[in-house]
Design goal:
By secondary structure, the chain is an alpha/beta fold. 46% of the residues lie in helices and 20% in strands. The chain contains 8 helices and 7 strands, in the order ααβαβαββαβαααββ.
Length: 235
């Protein structure tokens, strides 16, 4: 049976990762992913631990979002912070200039966040952040690169690492394939959604990656719908 193959990770090329993807298609796919993130409450998963961390500070909380895409997660976090009266300085980075440009366009006229181009696989991240977060990126990577990203996220923060990603499983495969069709008109999202679940790690596999990256004491919990959240706090 096809779905039984989900017992093992199956990474296949995704359209979003193709450098030759036309910018218009890329922007349409980014918009689709932002809509899915909004409907599934992706930013809220990150906001709750960030709010707790900010409560203990007498200055703005410094946050970096890795592989930010069109910046929908940092922008949502900025809105949560504004409503809660929490001071937060947010930055987002991505390897693709078209994504960073789209994030900057969406953030125009707002005091935050700040976006910049950065290849986290090639270069270490800038340091000095209270929290470094990442959403829907780790499943694009093989194990050594995923470990490298987690190591660099840990090196960039004084306190907290959060990774919000898909979790591999039969229900999640069907649910993501359905949601991609319903919530986006992008052919890229339609194709890449199911592929992303096939490439995703299970909770147990994510725990193993965290341990190999030196994130001692990290927790990984399944989150509805179709997600998992890795949380590491510096001892």
């Amino acid at each position: 049976m096809f779905l039984s193959a989900l017992r093992d990770r199956d990474r296949r090329p995704e359209l979003m990762d193709d450098p030759a993807l036309p910018p218009a298609e890329h922007r349409r796919a980014l918009a689709g992913l932002a809509r899915i993130n909004r409907w599934t409450g992706a930013a809220k998963l990150l906001w709750q631990p960030l709010e707790r961390l900010a409560a203990g500070l007498s200055r703005p909380l410094r946050v970096l979002d890795v592989a930010t895409g069109s910046g929908d997660i940092p922008l949502a976090l900025a809105r949560y912070a504004a409503r809660a009266g929490v001071r937060m300085d947010i930055a987002g980075c991505d390897i693709r200039p078209v994504a960073v440009a789209e994030a900057g366009r969406k953030a125009k006229g707002t005091p935050a966040p700040h976006f910049f181009v950065h290849d986290v696989l090639r270069d270490p991240l800038p340091t000095g952040f209270d929290a470094v977060v990442c959403s829907l990126f780790i499943h694009h990577l093989d194990d050594p690169d995923a470990i490298r990203v987690l190591e660099r996220m840990k090196a960039a923060t004084d306190t907290l690492v959060l990774v919000n990603d898909l979790a591999r499983g039969r229900f999640n495969y069907v649910a993501v394939a359905f949601a991609a069709r319903v919530l986006s008109r992008s052919r890229v999202v339609h194709a890449d959604g199911p592929l992303s679940v096939r490439a995703a790690f299970t909770v147990a596999e994510m725990k193993r990656l965290a341990a190999q990256a030196g994130l001692t004491g990290a927790t990984v919990t399944g989150k509805f719908p179709c997600r998992q959240l890795l949380t590491w706090e510096k001892p």
